Amino acid sequence: MKNHLKALRAERGWSQTELAERLQVSRQTVNAIENERYDPSLPLAFRIARTFGVPIEDIFEAP
User: Could you tell me the CATH superfamily of domain 2-61?
Assistant: First the structure.
């Protein structure tokens, strides 16, 4: 699933490790989502949206 996670993270100056800690997932999970190798669960997708304070649709694009 296409997403804008890397750009949002970079705008805030967060490393993958920092974002992973905020989301309570591994850095590898953040990397896999950013590189579109892993689609997050719905609860995780909503946590990501809340962390960035944007609607989920602004992060993830439907195929």
Answer: lambda repressor-like DNA-binding domains (1.10.260.40)
- Per-10-residue mean pLDDT of the chain, 63 residues long, equals 96 98 98 97 97 97 80
- Rounded to two decimals, the pTM is 0.92
Confirm if 61 and 3 have CB atoms less than 8 A apart: yes
Domain boundaries, the chain: 2-61
CA 49, CA 4: separation in Å to the nearest integer? Answer: 11
- To the nearest 10 degrees (0 to 180), the angle between helices 42-52 and 5-12 is 30
62: burial class by Cβ within 10 Å (0-12, 13-18, 19+)?
exposed
